[in-house]
Amino acid sequence: MPDTFRLTLAQLNPVMGDLAGNAAKALAAWQEGRAAGTDYVVCPEMFLLGYNPQDLVTKPALQIACMEQLQKLALETADGPALGIGAPVMYGDNLHNGYFILFGGKIHAQLHKHHLPNYNVFDEMRTFDSGDLNGPYVLNGVRIGSPICEDAWYEDVAETLAETGAEFLVVPNGSPYRRDKYDTRVAHMVSRVIENDMPLVYVNMVGGQDDQAFDGGSFVLNRGGKLAVLMPVFEEAIAHVTMTRTDDGWAAEPQPLSDHPDAWEQDYHAMVVTLRDYIHKSGFKKVLLGLSGGIDSALVAMVAVDALGADNVRCIMLPSEYTSQHSLEDAKEIAENLGVKYHTVPITPARDAFTASLAPMFEGMAEDVTEENIQSRIRGTILMALSNKFGEMLLTTGNKSEMATGYCTIYGDMNGGYNPIKDLYKSRVFETCRWRNTHHRDWMQGPEGEVCPTRIITKPPSAELRPDQKDEDSLPPYDVLDAILTGLVDNEQSVDDLVAAGFDRADVVRAEHLLHINEWKRYQAAPGTRLTNCAFWMDRRYPIVNRFRTGR
Ligand SMILES: Nc1ncnc2c1ncn2[C@@H]1O[C@H](COP(=O)(O)OP(=O)(O)OC[C@H]2O[C@@H]([n+]3cccc(C(=O)O)c3)[C@H](O)[C@@H]2O)[C@@H](O)[C@H]1O
Ligand SMILES: Nc1ncnc2c1ncn2[C@@H]1O[C@H](COP(=O)(O)OP(=O)(O)OP(=O)(O)O)[C@@H](O)[C@H]1O
Ligand SMILES: NC(=O)CC[C@H](N)C(=O)O
Asked: Could you give the ipTM of this predicted complex?
């Protein structure tokens, strides 16, 4: 019976569907583990394919390709430590979220996820069958139990593993970020450790996949729930961990813990990582955006530069007769601070042409939102033309308050492929800009210091689509609006709940009305970084036609 067991935790970033590329990453981690004298290299859940694969896993050709790649990987890792890696598998007539332990050139053990998450962004019951409860597998004489991600959020899987002789738990995960998610994970894992009186190794994925950020932050808990290892967030990392058998069971040798940043930093990092990975994994290098001198586009520009580098970001000011002098100055200043390519393309000639073309049909009619939206659509058209010509993806800049209330123009400022601030309420947009002005980290490609001019943060928001327009002419002040929207959207509260909490009934009824009548806009909106438990994309699936209201 060995007295030590070495694990290599491979906290890596897969590319969805790139089976050969993901296998190569796993192999490189395995080689590193072998060089370090490890017994077992642990990759995250579904690492061979990427997570969350949704309906992609139901394609038979994909299932076959995964098995072929897995067999190849087993042969490539025949001579050395075991490799754990997740992949989908057909077993009889059932499709499982599987985890494979490759050892000695073969599939040494195969596990099937039992608890299939089916809430928020997850709908694994749509694609996978639930596996039977697994017993432990044996590696170098040590009995290891592996609940697969959601399996470890319940008591029964770990309990069965403990009862059937597991000596410690190794949990592979594809656990996406949301604000404060780490605390939730640790709370669940500590429960498993205490209930079963054994250490637990938690290996998470990193990187961006569409709207979701996988934040890594893998860790090891010793008996009693004491944190022995904590890996960095949002970055690929490998950790070698030595487990030692003691009189009281196994214990992981403690290591210096990585910093675990606060929610402001993690949100910002999630936006940077998801944008970077969405762009690169989609085969792009560069982006562009309309830079208005307002705060939303300022924040998107900062995130883009931190994600991709200033050389890969182009910003365009598209002034009209309503564009203020301070907007022209502020846009130029932040562009210079960031070091991006910056151009000015006036929209007046195009607007005049539209006005002339529409004049016969609009004769005798007053100007209204139609004319406002034409400006936005001219900007959207020019920006898409630049995107086509230069091969740069257009970023869109609507914050969560705007996405909730439809305060944005379809086929206008909503044009674009990705929106990093989509799940940030406007109040958090202000705070995030302040945070970025006072914090700089190694993973940011942009400059440090006060990148966002203070005036952009302090001036009242305006779409500048008509004279002296302010957002607060159309919407309640953002601190009030955002609190109401948090209640309606994130907490599923009713109008009465929010009135009881002290909000003005008219404001709440209006916010609820805007929220529901703009469902259609959100169906047509670009994907963007998920930061909360209720982001507009997969977390919240409402019908478009819907007359239900909680208050009038
Ligand atoms: N359920 C539904 N399904 C499909 N289509 C639906 C629909 N309901 C309305 N529509 C259509 O949608 C159209 C109205 O939507 P839309 O054209 O977007 O226009 P709308 O939402 O009326 O106006 C855009 C608003 O966004 C504001 N804004 C704020 C910040 C920035 C910007 C900017 O652009 O830079 C704009 C702007 O001031 C204005 O108040 C209607 O003409 C109607 O045909
Ligand atoms: N004059 C402009 N030049 C370039 N892009 C613009 C201009 N006006 C609007 N846009 C684009 O349309 C988006 C929506 O405008 P909106 O007014 O909502 O945002 P903002 O100007 O960035 O911030 P704020 O709402 O705080 O003023 C902008 O973020 C920007 O990408
Ligand atoms: N992949 C999964 O099973 C994810 C669900 C899990 N409870 C999590 O978010 O961490």
From this structure: 0.93
